[in-house]
Amino acid sequence: MNQPRFFIPNRVSEEVLQFLQQYGDVDYRNKEEQMAEEEFLDGLSKADALLCYSRQKINGRILEQAPQLKAVCNIAVGYDNFDLEELTKRGVMATNTPGILTETTADLTFSILMAAARRVAEADHYVKSGQWQEWFPSLMLGKDVFGATIGIIGMGRIGEAVARRAKGFDMDILYHNRSRKTDVEEKLGASYVSLEQLLQQSDYVVVLTPLTDETRKMIGEKELALMKKDAILVNASRGATVDEAALIQALQKKQIAGAALDVYEKEPVDPDNPLLKMPNVVTLPHIGSATKETRGKMAMKAARNAVAAVSGEVPENLLNEEVLQNMK
User: How far are the Cα atoms of 144, 183, 184, 187, 225 from residue 180, in angstroms, in the given order?
Assistant: First the structure.
């Protein structure tokens, strides 16, 4: 009987490789960069399970080249790179890695909020570029975080973790979510409000919702116009949840004070994107979960999901449960 074959097109830890080698053959490409599609499809065509990062698009065209594939396992929480309908139709399980990156991503989210508020990146450049010739009272005046109002759009695991950090800064916590979270309200004193109320009242608007048809460009021209003129927008979810053209326009017109972004509509972001020229915008390269410890745990969870799928078991983090009906 042939052993299952795991395909890993990008770098993971030796621990993950050793774990998978106990259960089958491992086709591992020790690369940081995304491989050429022809090479990727060659590996996928022989695979029973794929472990990949969220930059790898998996759609019907790709799946046509993978006749024996049983599972695609994202090393990520978000899974908008998956065409779940196509995967389910073809009997392929899809999994993600929730929970592990919650605290790490919340750390990053709150850190870029503070960086934008206190103009950290701008001040760092000011010193390093030799512009600091004297001190004066209005030098790099920022915006208080302690005691301010934070509005969190998307009160999932990461949203709640950010709210806990905001509680430590004695912030008033507003949130908007598909459903009310009374436990969060009781634990953290958060207030459930409409999206319009959140935008109008918050000093910091933090977008932490997954990307769906409903949330795509949910923050656009109309929503940005509702925000305070001294408010800051923070996006650590998916770039397409914010209408980037509308955000650029709002910043250029000084409708809002600034932004802190870890994600963009197009990634990597174009070098000529106006956001990169704005000193009041903190720009990071999608590193929300980027710590060695967290990425290692995410890859191991993806590996465990892959092993379960090829062993005839139900993976812990199965996204398309409908596929189980198709397999009966």
Answer: 28, 9, 9, 14, 25
The upper half-sphere exposure of residue 174, i.e. CA atoms within 13 Å in the direction of its Cβ, equals 21
118 shares a domain with 265: yes
E-strand ranges in 179-235 read: 191-192, 204-207, 232-235
With a cut of 50, which residues of the chain have pLDDT below it?
none
**Shared domain check, 206 and 274:** yes
Q: What is the DSSP letter of 59?
A: -
What DSSP string runs through 85-148? Answer: HHHHHTT-EEE--TTTTHHHHHHHHHHHHHHHHTTHHHHHHHHHTT------TTTT-----TT-
CA dist., res. 148 & res. 180, Å (int): 22
pLDDT on residue 2:
81
Q: 309 and 238, same structural domain?
A: no
pTM: 0.87
Q: What is the CATH number of the domain that holds 303?
A: 3.40.50.720
Residue position matching structure tokens 């409000």: 193
- Pick left, alpha or beta for residue 306 (phi over 0 → left; psi -120 to 50 → alpha; otherwise beta): alpha
The residue whose two tokens read 């709150």 is: 110
Domain interval for residue 213: 102-283
Query: Which residues are annotated as catalytic?
Result: 238, 267, 286
Q: Would you tell me how many other CB atoms lie within 10 Å of the CB of residue 233?
A: 28
Give dist(CA 87, CA 72) in Å, integer. Answer: 9
pLDDT tens-digit series, residues 148-157? 999 999 999 9
The CA distance from 56 to 254, in Å, is 36
Nearest to 242 by CA among 215, 267, 260: 215
